[in-house]
Protein 1
Amino acid sequence: MSSPMQITLRHMERSDALETRVRRLVQRLERLHSGILSSRIVIEAAHHLRHQGRAFVVRLEIKVPGDEIIVDRDHHEDPYVALRDAFEAAGRQVEDYARRRSVEKRRANRAAAETAG
């Protein structure tokens, strides 16, 4: 299931290819954990020049039940590399979240069984 998604590009022109890449990366996250409620992705071209090109900043805000996963990855000269790095970090955080939730559910089920039994 596809969760609501907001993609914002700042200080750069709209790019269908970049937006398509973002959508695919969000779909990968949704395969890791189906409980993603929404996601907000901001890709910003920094104002200053760094080395020989512009630097890009990527910020991800991913809402999951009871929590929000936030990733900031800044300053890479290629927006696709900045996206890749940000989504890899988000994937690790989503997996950690899913593990924590699983442990919490097992503990709650165990406690309920002990109370009932």
Protein 2
Amino acid sequence: MSQENVTTVRNLYDLFAKGDVPTVLAGFDPEIEWNEAENFPYADGNPYIGPNAVLEGVFMRLGSEWDYWKLDIGEVLDAGESVVAMGRYQAKNKTTGKEINAQFAHVWKLRDGKAVSFQQYADTQQVVDAVSGS
């Protein structure tokens, strides 16, 4: 099951990169618990419960506040009951024009092929600086 979970998470990232948000959301459990990293601008809604909360509180904000938001996925690791993805965010803020190239780690938990929880760890300072223009 662990390798299946790694494949599922990789597929979610591929779908997100293609802009297929409806299919990404369909891969979430109806009660997914999504947490942004502490001090990340979108942590104000933690925890986001359910796909619609993630869509409105995270994905729509990424789309409206950034010219682009790309994830460069490095490793995706089987961690027993979890899947850990590591990589970098590459983005440009619409308001300030500042770009980021920030590292991240995401910890996913899956059940029956659906994501039931997500925890982001990230270089929040770069994102905060880009948003504030610092």
Protein 3
Amino acid sequence: MKTASKKAKGRNLQYWVCNQVANLFNITFDQQDDQCPIHSREMGQSGSDVYIRNKELYDMFPYDIECKNTENISVYSYIKQAISNTKSGRNWLVIHKKNRSAPIVILDANHFFEILKERGGKTYEKI
């Protein structure tokens, strides 16, 4: 696969993620609009792949996202890259997609269980 095609695949996933985050907050994602509160980082630039420009939205969405659109998965190298791009006080998140498959989310297991607790997970008596 040509480099341009690989970059296009990655860009498409980043746009998809930007749209998903924008939909969560009822805003419109427009990569061409410099005032858009969410933006896909250009290929080859350092930092998280999804850049949130709006302070309020940034505070409400506590993730720094790394996007990978590849056929082979190298989970721990993706996590290492995501962690290196995550700012203090935020959580890393990897979104991976391969051809003809739905995107998946990779996040720290401890953080996952914290989310469930915060959502009001029920406490069960001994069965």
Protein 4
Amino acid sequence: MRDREFVDAFEACTLPPAEFPHSAHIRLAWLYLRDAPVLEALTRFVENLRRYASSLGAAGKYHETITWAFVFLIHERMVRFPCPTFDEFAAANEDLFDRILDRYYSPETLASDLARRVFVLPDLPNYEEFR
């Protein structure tokens, strides 16, 4: 699906859930970040992700810390290593697709109600060494 069609289907809540795995979340964030400053992109991503999840009857699946952390990680990577296409970005940042937050957060923190409701900073003492 082309980028514009993908974004439009997601924002209209017509994108089938099977077409929105983790990699599609990353693609959507990349597209939003490509078109807007980070805080605008974050706001748009959060609002639309919540609405999409609600449309599927899955409002409780939204997780603030995971969402914010990924948007900021993706943004950082886009600035450090610019790529003209999402496919190139994905190939250059394979770790974003493989439980990268385990490097920054303890399982207890990510499982907490607090982390689900508000953005929580990384809590692993040595997360800096994984950058």
